[in-house]
Amino acid sequence: MQWAYIGSFTSGGGRGITVAAVDPETGAPAVRRSVGTVVNPSALALDPGTGVLYAVSDAEQGAVAAFRAGADGGLTPLGPAVPAGGAGPTHLSVAGGRVLTANYGSGSVSSIGLAPDGSPSGPPVVLAHHGSGPDPDRQRGPHAHQVLPDPDGRWVLSVDLGTDAVRVCALDAATGALRVHTETVLRAGSGPRHLAFHPDGEVVYVLHELEPQMTVCRWDAVSGVLVALAEVAVGPEGAPEGERVYPSVVSVSSDGRFVRAAVRGSNTILTWSVVDDPEKPQLTGSVDCGGVWPRDVVADASGRRLYVVNEWSGDVTWFDVDAESGALRRGGSVEVPAAACLVFS
Fold it and tell me: Which of 23, 33, 118, 37 is nearest to 72 (CA)?
């Protein structure tokens, strides 16, 4: 049985972490239970090696909680949540035997040690970002939005919306400290929010929130250098006239043939083909996300289905994926109030 874990904003009426069983034939998630012990678990990460699910608490006093995921989908807490060392964490990942968090409110990234049972342990080691951007409302200071390891696990990349930059960091295995190795500065005022690696490990797609665009980058895993190559428009088609759109998340199909992005405001999912050249995405389709304010997009392990997490309409909508064209056909939806993110077991 495959299980889906769906995080939600408890401050917006969400249930916390919703556990759903996924029908292997139809792809439909059936809600089984929820765990409401974490405030605003807006980002989740599952360590497949240990079966531990980690959740941020997206609050002024940010925290990280851990659960043992059982074969029946149940979640057993591994002790109390621990401080993240920053405000408003919006993303987390597991790297080098530690949990990393991107702290949007305080503009920093944190590294937290793990005990043998996988529970977060010890004080966080915090790397503060510095800088600002031209947007007076959103870029008065740094706002780390995502932090994740590269495919080789050698480097850690942090995406900062407030400073229009992606930082490549080295993680000290002994101390857990993060040290900035290189920094890639992107278009001023664009507000980079989220990135995804192509399976070849050499191309990175950076999605921007403040300007509807995606930057295609080349990644050198040996030197730890990210180089911007080109910008791709993330069109506002479908948005009400005169209103802005806010791209939220980018993902790459496991076979490396398609890139997809969710766009809030127009409430669309865009698909680009990168079959001919990963560095030159070609727009092939745009579909309604099935709800309002799509915040996360996740493919299942087979790549046959795509799940869209719609925050404002409070649902998860799934699509069947055409293997050849990448076209999306809506399958259905399940209610999950104030939904924010999804991971599969």
Answer: 33
Counting residues of the chain whose pLDDT is more than 90, the rounded percentage is 96
What are the φ/ψ torsions at residue 202 (nearest 5 degrees)? -120, -10
pLDDT band for position 241 (cuts 50, 70, 90): confident
Q: Give the length of the chain.
A: 345
Q: Which amino acid is at 211?
A: E
User: Rounded CA gap, 278 and 290, in Å?
Assistant: 28
CB atoms within 10 A of CB 300: 18
Q: How confident is the model at residue 242 (pLDDT cuts 50, 70, 90)?
A: confident
Mean pLDDT of 218-235: 97
Yes or no: say if 54 and 69 are a contact pair by the CB < 8 Å rule: no
The mean pLDDT value for 125-145 works out to 98
What is the residue whose two structure tokens read 């292997």?
Answer: 24
* CA proximity to 56, closest of 138, 146, 123, 133: 146
| Residue 237 clears pLDDT 80, i.e. is over it | no
φ, ψ (nearest 5 deg) of residue 100 = -110, 140
Name residue 194's amino acid: H
Cβ–Cβ < 8 Å for 331, 28: yes
Q: What is the mean pLDDT of residues 96-123?
A: 96
| pLDDT averaged over every residue in the chain | 96
Burial of 285 per CB tally in 10 Å (0-12, 13-18, 19+) = middle
Identify the three-state secondary structure at position 12. Answer: helix
Sheet-wide strand order for 339-344:
29-35, 17-22, 2-8, 339-344
Sign of the dihedral through C-alpha 301, 304, 308, 314: negative
Q: CA-CA distances (angstroms) from residue 47 to 50, 54, 90, 97, 308?
A: 6, 8, 18, 10, 22
pTM of the entire structure? 0.97
